[in-house]
């Protein structure tokens, strides 16, 4: 798992699973502390995700909402979106798809 930042955007790449949840959790909460409003988590390079990682992101999203912030998931691949729906955790996020180039 690699985590990079670009302003209010966290860019994740690799496997987002139980082994990387601590690192991702710390990065998300740190980002929330340093940015007002919405933060975006770019998921375009996330290859796999498991339920543990989704729960970490959902808890962070609830925390953000209580503080007047929000977490937006960007470019989640179909497998990640499917996991969000199957787990019913989709309700905790705004999920943004990449704009279609014309």
Describe it for me?
The chain is α/β, with parallel strands linked by helices and about 100 residues long. The protein has a single domain (about 1-95), classed as STAS domain (Transcription Regulator spoIIAA), CATH 3.30.750.24. About 40% of the residues lie in helices and about 30% in strands. It has three helices and five strands; from the N terminus they run E-E-H-E-H-E-H-E. The chain has helices at about 20-35, 50-65, 80-85; strands spanning about 1-5, 10-15, 40-50, 70-75, 95. A five-stranded mixed β-sheet has the order 1-2-3-4-5. Helix 3 links the parallel strand 4 (about 70-75) and strand 5 (about 95).
Explain briefly what this protein structure is:
This protein has one domain (2-96): STAS domain (Transcription Regulator spoIIAA, 2-Layer Sandwich).
Main beta-sheet annotation: 5 strands, mixed
CATH class: Alpha Beta
- Helix-strand category: alpha/beta
Number of domains: 1
CATH homologous superfamily identity: STAS domain
Low-confidence stretches: none
**Principal-axis shape:** globular
Per CATH, which architecture? 2-Layer Sandwich
Order of strands across the widest beta sheet? 1-2-3-4-5
* Secondary structure: helix percent: 25-40%
Helical run tally: 3
- Cα distance, first to last residue? 32 Å
Number of strands: 5
Radius of gyration: 12 Å
> What series of H and E elements makes up the topology?
EEHEHEHE
| Average pLDDT rating | 90
Strand content: 25-35%
CATH topology: Transcription Regulator spoIIAA
Organism: Nocardioides immobilis
Pfam family, one: STAS_2
InterPro entries: MlaB-like_STAS, MlaB_ABC_Transporter, STAS_dom, STAS_dom_sf
Protein name: Anti-sigma factor antagonist
């Amino acid at each position: 798992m690699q985590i990079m930042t670009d302003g209010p955007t966290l860019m994740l790449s690799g496997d987002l699973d139980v082994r990387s949840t601590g690192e991702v959790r710390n990065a998300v909460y740190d980002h929330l502390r340093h940015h007002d409003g919405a933060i975006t988590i770019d998921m375009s390079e996330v290859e796999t995700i498991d339920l543990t990682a989704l729960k970490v992101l959902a808890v962070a999203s609830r925390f953000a909402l209580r503080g007047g912030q929000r977490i937006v998931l960007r470019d989640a691949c179909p497998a990640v979106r499917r996991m969000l729906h199957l787990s019913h955790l989709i309700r905790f996020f705004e999920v943004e798809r990449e704009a279609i180039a014309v």
